[in-house]
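Hi, here's the filled form for the chain we discussed.

Project: internal
Contact: R.S.
Residues: 355
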Amino acid sequence: MAAHGCCEAGEAPTRSVLTIGAPVLTALAGSWPRKRLLLAAMAVFTRGNVAVALSTSLPTLLAARFGSGLGHGVFLAVASSAATRLVPPERAGAAVATVFGGLTLALAFGVPLGTFLGGIWTWQAIFWAVAACGVAGLLGLAVLMPPAPDGGAPRDAWIGLRALLDRRLLGAALVTVLAYTGSFCLFSYIAPLLIDVTGLAPAHVGALMLAYGVAAAIGNGLGGRLTDRFGPDRTVALILAGLVLVLAMIGALASFVIPMANLVALLGALTYAAVPALQARVIGLAGRHASRALAAAAGLNIAGFNAGIALGSLLGGGVIAAWDVSATAFVGARAAASGLGVLAMRRRSSIVLDP
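And the returned structure, exactly as it came back:
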């Protein structure tokens, strides 16, 4: 319980840092060589978790989480943009999916494992374990990662900062925000939905969350392959349409156990299949309109993911207060449909990634 409470206390500042700080810091450090910046980001993340483990008060814990969140956000942004430069253009989707594969595997196995260990270890031990993973990642980067081409790295930090205000990149990030607002409007409250409406015992909810995580890991890889085959715009449109359909079906079939078990897994697959497609779309768009600020553009989209998660949680809470928990599925479907509408508008305005 203590570990859970500690993580919850640190989640809000971490999310806000990823939303605001990560793209700005990525832009400011954009002139650094990619590998050096990744090593620095991983080092900050690792040291932040060591500081959390050593914290003796809530203010110091939150400050340490703030630092680790900066490292996390910068790492994801730079890693996804660097990965696309290490492979041929037709493999960009798979490269981004590989970067985010660790995130989805952590969702599938790390969260249940962390919950289990939280019951037998102190919360400090959990963060020492996270720091140890950071050290392993740091060593892996240092030894295994080849130098990434720095053709997308600006010499002037203002180039990256200006890219954060580019209307085309902001429009692409808005699609990400709306997609994740829709998904997390429901998913943030999936446990009460499954218990109060579907009628599952609390002990069975964990099994469905594991299925969601496993499906998310599978969906992430599938999203990368679809992106490479059909292009980011078409893949994002397909995934968002599927997300709208699944959310609406969850709202309609929430009281039925077997359909819900399948739909929750589909929700995980679609939510994380969107990650490589959305990220590759923004990076590709930046390649056309802000080619010296690829990492900053990737950071902007990372901010979009986290803003969508936060907004979805807030929206879902308001929906529950006004109606009931089942309504989060229908409102989430409308939010995701809005993302699909923005994507269609971008295409009609000839701001498209696919040839």
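Let me know if anything looks off before we file it.
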